Structures are given as structure tokens and as C-alpha cells.
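Q: How would the C-alpha cells look for this protein?
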Amino acid sequence: MNYEKTSGYLPQPWDRIFPLITRMTVWGVLFGVIYILRSFFLLVFLTFVFAYIQTNGVSRLKAVIKNRTIRVIIVAAVFLSILVSIAIFLVPKVQKQAMSFANRFTSYLERVDQEILYLSIRYPWLDEIIPELTAMKENGAINKNKESGEKGLKQSPTAVLLQGFLGLGEESEGHKNFDRIVETLSDIGGGVASVVSTFLLALLFSFLIVLDLPRLSASVAELEHTKISFIYVEVADNIRNFSRVLGQSFEAQFFIAVANSILTAAGLYLLGLGTNVAFLSVIVFLCSFIPVAGVFVSSVPICLIALQTSGLEIMLLAVVLIIIIHLIEGYILNPKIYGFRLRINPVLVLIILTVGGKLFRFWGLILGVPICTYIFAHAIRIKAKSEA
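A: Here is the predicted structure in C-alpha cell form.
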């Protein structure tokens, strides 16, 4: 490195301090730029994901089609066709079913409250675990106090359990977060419309990047022969390796999410829950990108709808279905698709998700595990001499 050569002319201990200060400055500036551009993070992330998928497709067609430009155009056309088909056939159904789920959410909670109340009559020790049951019995009925929907929801033991289960907080703060999620579901159409421009820009940028990738790579590599070569030498390999790990992680998780969604959709049809299969399958698909915790989060709407529409027996069968699909994922799909090189201990995954979700919200849940996988499997490893 250039700054290491420069440090050879410095007296001790500056010959060791100078490279360290330079390295910290480079990474500090890089993270500072990322923080300044945080409002564009969704665009950058989608562009990276789309470009990675298309680059892999272009590489796999190399043996069949020699001309790279033709390969890029074919892959982009197929990729765009798939996305347009999903937007035309799936999005309207998901929007309709999501709004129906949000509108009926209170009735779902009331049904669960009713089942819990019946169980507490048979098993009184549940009153000690769920104090809200005592208030419900004193009122003589579930949510009998109808002064306001907010008050009834606060008294719901199911709402309290879900707040704690989903980590939404406690008491008034948790209740506000809970209401916000329901409102988001009911306004899902507006949320989709607000990211259309970002989505389209990411498609355009990813296509242009993949199309001109060889020249872009050569242009970036020329930075090694400029006055800022010390920045390139410090960050280039790390960014390249991290991009590879992140891309492999999301590519593998994508195939697992598709498999989970298909298996869930088939199981829901068999259980007679086909009227909500689009919404529930999309929830399963999205939650598949959240390791460990995702399976529990995606199970909540499935169980609520199954209990309300078909009764307790179907809900229990839905739980069995979720367990079977999770076992298939854990023992068949993960080893075959994900590979052991990207595996991480489930306890560490939960810790990463808890810390990442608390500090960085959505992005902490999505990127926490890949980032930590890269740090522990690549960044802090001492390279062998043969690799240096």
C-alpha cells in the first residue's frame, strides 16, 4: 500500500501509527458518505440486488450465447417480464386481501381472546400468566367495554401477547406501534405506489451497470494508479468480497423464500384457506429474508385467519403445516441451497436480529446477518501467505 511505503520513512512509533490513522480515516469517510446518502439506500440496495441477479444470469448464458450484449438484453427482458407479470396478476390480489385482513383484524383478536378465555376457565392458572384475563372475566364478556376501539384493543390479551412477541414495546408505546402496523396494512396500496419510482430507477440503473460492467470495472481499477490509490487499495477488496457474500446470501435466500411460498400456498389450499393465499404467501416470502424470527412473524396472520375462518382445528393444522415447512427448509433447502459457508449459529442470529432491529430497524433485520457473516468469516480472518 502507498501509505505503508510512506510509513517506512517515518520514525518509530509513527511508522505504525500512520497506516492505522490513514485506514481509520478512509473507512470513516466511506461510512460518512454512506450516512449522508442514507435517503438513497433503498435505491442502492435494489440496484445491487437486480444487478447481481442479472449478472449471474448473463454469466450462465455464456456457454450458449457468446455475444455479451445479447445475453444482457435477453436476461433483462426475461427479468422485466417476470416483474411485470407479478405486478399485473399478484399485486392487486395482495392489496385486496391485505386490506381485508386489516379491516377484520379486531375480529381476529376477539376470536383468539374468546378461545383463551375458554381455556382459562378450564385451566385457572392461565390468569396468573395473562393478567388481562381477570379484567375480561370481571366485565363478563370479551371486549364488552366498547367506549373506544383503542380501549378494547388495550384490554385484549392477544394484542398484549403479540406486542411482546413481535417486540413492539409495552403499554401505550407498544399499542401505538401495533396500530401503526394495522394502518400500514390497510394502506398497502399507497405504500406500493410511493416506491414505484425507486423501483423503476433501480431497474434502469442495474441494466445499464450490467450492460457496461466490463468497462466500469476497468475504470474503477484505474484508480489504483491515481493519487487516491491508497483509498482504492484499502477498500476495493473488502467491498468486492462483501458484495460477493451479500449477493450469495440474498440469492440463496431468494430461492428458499420462493420454495417456502410455494409450499405454504399449496398447504393453505389444502386447508381451505385459498381466499387469502396471495396475501399470506407474500408475507411468507418477505419474512423468509429474516432468519429464524421470520418464520414466527409470518405464522401470526396465518394462524389468525385460520382460527377465524375455519376454527381451532384448522389453526392447529396450520401450525403443523408451518412446522413441516420449517423442517424442510432447515434440513433440506438450507444445506442444498444456502450452503454451510453462509450458515451461522441460531443463537447468534437472534442476537444479531435483536441488536440490528433495535439500532437500524428494517435494514438491521435484512442486512444484519450477511454483514456479521462477512465480518466473522472474512474481514477479521488472517489470510494465509498463499492468499496474500
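The mean pLDDT is 75.

The CA atoms of residues 118 and 270 lie 28 Å apart.

Upvote if useful.
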